Amino acid sequence: MNLLPLYPNDVFGFPTGLLVGTLIGFAFGFVLERAGFGNAKNLAAQFYLTDTRVLKVMFSAIATACAGLGLLAGLGVLDLSLVTVPETFVGPHVVGGLLLGIGFMVSAYCPGTGVVAMASGKWDGFWSIVGVMAGSLLFGYVYAPLEGFDRRGAMGSVTIAQATGLPFPVLAAGVVAMAVGAFLGAEKLEAVFAPKLSKAVPASNPPVRNRVFAAMGTVAVLGLVTVALPSRPPAVAEEPVSKIGAVELAQKIVASPQGLWILDLRDPRAAGKETIPGTVTLPEGTSAAKFAATLPATRTLVAYGEGDVAALPAELRAFPGEVLVLSGGFDAWKGAVLAAPVPPADPTPTLIAEFRMKSALNGYFTGAAAAPAPKLVVKAVATSAAPKKGGGC
Predict the structure, then answer these.
(1) What structural domains and CATH numbers belong to the chain?
(2) What is the C-alpha separation between 220 and 172, in angstroms, rounded?
């Protein structure tokens, strides 16, 4: 069925998408404000374990969303591969997470709750957002020396389900179980630490809490049931596999990275090898060909080796969607995308446009400054002499 997400399936246009996103943003802010997240004291209480509403509200929302996604994906209504997942860079993400945590502890606000507090008329929320903007501006100034670190530990656009090979409903059930345990554990911590700091223990409503647990658990169990439902085996493609050029692949990665599955067919044990940005990170002990069988057919699968791939493995041919092979493999990628383009010796408008495009791609994937395009030189064309007028011999 694959009815969702709605926007990529052309259920509504871009203006409607902006309106829906705006309304969802207002609703999200309203819920945060009603939960008390616009008050720095409530947020800071999380760190003192006297009021763990932040953990309860956010983890309940995450668990509910995971359980719902697991059920809809298991039924085939939701196509998780169309959900945008940013690329993972281990090093900068770890450092960025620590910096965000320190900022949260110092100001008691994250960017979202800071906006809510500012909208509620609180000056501390306003200054926290000013700090976020100042930090973003400062990062722009110091980005050049940090550029190498900024892409450290690149893993591509990968999810926990892809990395572990587990079905998403199974992971969703695990998240629900963790949420229930964290919720109950947080109430125990509140009862211990609130009296020590002369704070009132936050009120609890066990009947409502248990009904919420039961609802999340029911949805999670239904999601697990869908894992056992029989699925139709994909038909093995008999047509010859089409090829894609390195430049065309680079353009697709820039324009729509979420529309591609990129698999590296080279030996995964090779140390220090470069990969094409967006290459799927494989679970330990899983080959690219076998992993392709677990991917939904909503994206185009692009496979590449070191050079030209003579023949695709049978498992890769079983992928039910479109399969492309990178012509020339990673060697062609290095020569056409990573290497600086050479200006045309005899520039024409077409060649200059092509050079600019390749320079832009080279700068995007390497960070190098784009070389100036050559100037178009209009050559004088000799014309035949004008015929003489009048008589004569």
Answers:
(1) 7-227 (no CATH), 242-337 (3.40.250.10), 340-377 (no CATH)
(2) 7
